[in-house]
Amino acid sequence: xxxxxxxxxxRTFAIISHPDAGKTTLTEKLLLFGGAIQIAGAVKSxxxxxxxxxxxxxIEKQRGISVATSVMGFxxxxxxxxxxxxxxxxxxxxxTYRTLTAVDSxxxxxDVAKGxxxxxxxxxxxxxxRHTPIIVFINKLDREGKDPFDLLDEVETKLHLHVxxxxxxxxxxxQFKGVYNMYEQKLALFRxxxxxxxxxxxxxxxxxxxxxxxxxxxxxxxxxxxxxHTIESVYPKFDRETYLKGAVSPVFFGSAVNxxxxxxxxxxxxxxxxxxxxxxxxxxxxxxxxxxxxxxVFKIQANMDPKHxxxxxxxxxxxxxxxxxxxYFHVRQNRSMKFSNPTSFMADKKEVIDxxxxxxxxxxxxxxxxxxxxxxxxxxxxxxxxxxxxxPEMFRYVNNKDPMKQKQLQxxxxxxMDEGVAQLxxxxxxxxxxxxxxxxxxxxxxQYRLLHEYGASVDFExxxxxxxxxxxxPNDKDFAEFLQRRxxxxxxxxxxxWVFLAPSAxxxxxxxxxxxxxxxxxxxEF
Length: 526
Ligand code: G4P
Known about the structure:
By secondary structure, the protein is α+β, with helices and mostly antiparallel strands. The chain is built from 15 helices and 31 strands.
C-alpha cells in the first residue's frame, strides 16, 4: 500500500467520559465490531476487561481502577482504528490530558440519566482548547433518563459544544423502542442484549411513510415525527468541515451494554472522523505526509513486567514512516538511537512491528532514556507543543524512612517523575523535596511503587502550598529581587526551572501585585 494511503486509512481517537458512563463497555463493543476480540455478549468477563482496559500495574489490580493508558488497534472496513484508552479516575486526569495530545478526535460518552458530569467537563475543555473534533454518544437509553432535548441543551451549556443530533431515540427505559438514524435515514429497532440483526433496521427515508407506524406504537411514531421536525428547524444540518474544525459535535444515542447504536456510531465515525492531522512544534508545523519521520512520547508505562524494571514509552507517530532497527535522533539527548523491538498493540495482543505510520502509536522499550514530551525524528531538532505539565493541586514533603536507601530513592523518584506520575520540586533554601500531584491517589501509588520497585521506603508530610507557578523574568535584576524576597517559597522543578510555590491564593496575588514585571504561569509550557 502507498505511504499516503496508509496515512489516510488511520483513525486515532480516545473515548472520554466521567467514570461509569460506559467508556469501557463502548470500547469493548467497538473492539467486537472490529473483530479484535471474539466474546460477543460476554461484556466485561475478566478476560475482556483485562484486554480492553490497561491492567498492567499491580496497584491497579488492587484498587480496581484503570490507572494506566493503553492502546488498542483494530481494522474495520479497510481502516486502521487506534483507540487510546484513558484512565477515568480524576486523580489521573493529567495522564488523560497528555493522551489527548496524541489523538486526532474523541468520542465523549454521557450517561442519559446523569447528564454532563464534572470529569467530562474538564476533559472536553482540554479538547476544545485544541479544536479536537468531538462526537457525543449518549448511553444507557435502556434506562430512564433525562429528556433528550434537555440533554442537548446541557451539552451546549456545560460543555460549550454546538451539537447536531445525527440519531434520535424513540422513547427510553421501559418504552425504549429504538433509534432513528438521521444520517442514514434508518430506523433501528431495539432488542436487548446484543441481538441487533439486519432485519431490525428499516430504511425510512420519509417519516410520513406509514411504514413507521407498523414498527413502533402510533403515539411514539407521532412523537418521533414532531421531534425530528423540531430538530431540523432548531439545529444546523451536519457539515463535516465544521465538525473537523471542532465547531460542531454530532450526537448519537444508544445503549453500549446492549450493543445498540454502537455500529451506527462506528459506521459514522469511520466516515467523518479525521485521518492523522498536522502537529505543532516550536519550530514549525509537522505534516503527516512528510517523508521525514517524527513522533513524540506522550506516555511512559512502567512495570509491564514487575520482575524487570522495564518501561514502555508510547510514541505517537506524527510524520514519515517509522522503521525497526533504523537510527533515529533523540532530540533532548542529542544522540542517535535504534529500536530493535518496537511494539504495536492490537486489542489484547502485542507484537513487534517492522514499520508504522502517522497516527500509529508504537511502544518502545526503554531503560530510562525517555521523559514525556520527548521527540524522536529522522534528524531534525523538533519540540512538539501541547504536552505541558500542569500546576499540581496537592503537595507533600517526601521523607526518606531508610537513610541507607538514599540512592534507590533518588533513582525511583527520577524515574517516576519522567513517567509523569507526579512532579518533583526541590526547595531552594532547604533542599527538601516536595512532590506535587493532581490527586491524592498518586501519593499512594508513589509510596507503593518506590517500595516495591526500588526498595525505598518513604512517608509524606503536609506542606502549605496552594499552587506552583513557573516564572518568566524580564531581566536578571528583577529575577534577583524576586529571589531575594521570596526565597523561602522558591524551588526548582526537575529540569531545573525556577518555580514559585505560592503558600496561598492571597500570597500569590500579593506576589503578582508586587512584581508586575514577572510573568506567572500555571503550566510549564508557555
Ligand atoms: P466506565 O468505563 O465509563 O467507567 O464505565 P463502564 O463501561 O465500566 O460501565 C459502567 C457501568 O454501566 C457498568 O455496570 C456497565 O455494565 C453499565 N453500562 C454500560 N453501558 C450501559 C447501557 O447501555 N445500559 C445500562 N443499563 N448499563 C450500562 P456495572 O454494574 O458497574 O458493571 P458490570 O457488573 O455490568 O460489569
